[in-house]
């Protein structure tokens, strides 16, 4: 489904200490509503929300992060749970799907830009947990409309669609602000989202899943 679904994104997220030039709009958390973007995308199954493990919490605390929680959800325009991938009709339906993968962490981020840069640096250094996924070029800074009080970069990746088995290219976009770091990856079997399209979707998803604490 998602090109980089096998990327251990959580391991790359760095909620770092330091300064920052963004405006802090107060404590926020991430949610995984039943649908996003004017209900175009419906959540596939249940979302996952987990407190940081004791070892992760200790590492985060060294950077001044407490009460860290991760949120994961997958959204699609098609009911993927009801599909039978051995049925050609269902496979054809899957090929019409537009999907959005969301993974994020909320807590306290003292320097969003440093955290974002470190996240992509670690991703570039360590690669992915799936040898079939290839990161292409360097992450690019973007400023889509609606991205208020955050910084964002997008990284192109090539891999294989998990439902159709076909080659797929997508952009993985990550934002960082003073309370949250979130990754959004939009994919579709029948099209490739551009950098600008991917960044805009990510910004719009952020505006819907990020809520005041």
The fraction of residues in strands falls at 25-35%
Decide which structural class fits the backbone.
alpha+beta
Query: Looking at the structure, what is the overall shape?
Result: globular
Task: Kindly provide the radius of gyration, computed on alpha-carbon positions and rounded to a whole number of angstroms.
Answer: 17 Å
Order of helices and strands: HEEEEHEHEHEEEEHE
- The level of helicity is 10-25%
Mean pLDDT: 83
The largest pleated sheet is described as:
9 strands, antiparallel
Continuous helix count = 5
Q: What's the β-strand tally?
A: 11
Q: Gap between N and C termini, in Å?
A: 32 Å
Low-confidence stretches: 1-11
Describe the structure.
This protein has helices spanning 9-12, 54-62, 88-94, 112-126, 195-209, and strands at residues 28-30, 35-36, 41-43, 48-51, 69-76, 98-106, 134-142, 151-160, 167-176, 180-188, 210-212. A hairpin with a 6-residue loop joins strand 8 and strand 9. The chain starts with 8 loop residues before the first helix and ends with a strand. The chain is of the alpha+beta class. It has five helices and eleven strands.
């Amino acid at each position: 489904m998602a090109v980089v679904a096998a990327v251990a994104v959580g391991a790359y997220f760095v909620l770092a200490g330091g300064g920052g030039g963004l405006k802090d709009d107060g404590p926020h958390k991430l949610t995984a509503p039943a649908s996003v973007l004017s209900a175009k995308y419906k959540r596939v199954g249940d979302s996952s929300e987990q407190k940081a493990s004791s070892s992760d919490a200790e590492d985060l605390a060294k950077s001044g992060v407490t009460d860290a929680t991760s949120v994961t959800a997958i959204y699609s325009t098609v009911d993927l749970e009801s599909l039978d991938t051995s049925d050609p009709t269902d496979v054809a339906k899957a090929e019409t799907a537009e999907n959005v993968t969301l993974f994020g962490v909320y807590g306290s981020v003292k320097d969003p830009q440093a955290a974002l840069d470190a996240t992509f640096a670690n991703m570039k250094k360590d690669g992915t947990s799936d040898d079939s996924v290839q990161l292409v070029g360097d992450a690019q800074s973007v400023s889509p409309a609606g991205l208020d009080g955050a910084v964002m970069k997008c990284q192109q990746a090539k891999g294989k669609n998990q439902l159709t088995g076909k080659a797929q290219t997508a952009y993985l976009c990550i934002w960082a602000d003073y309370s949250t770091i979130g990754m959004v990856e939009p994919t579709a079997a029948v099209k490739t989202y551009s950098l600008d399209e991917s960044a805009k979707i990510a910004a719009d998803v952020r505006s819907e899943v990020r809520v005041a604490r």
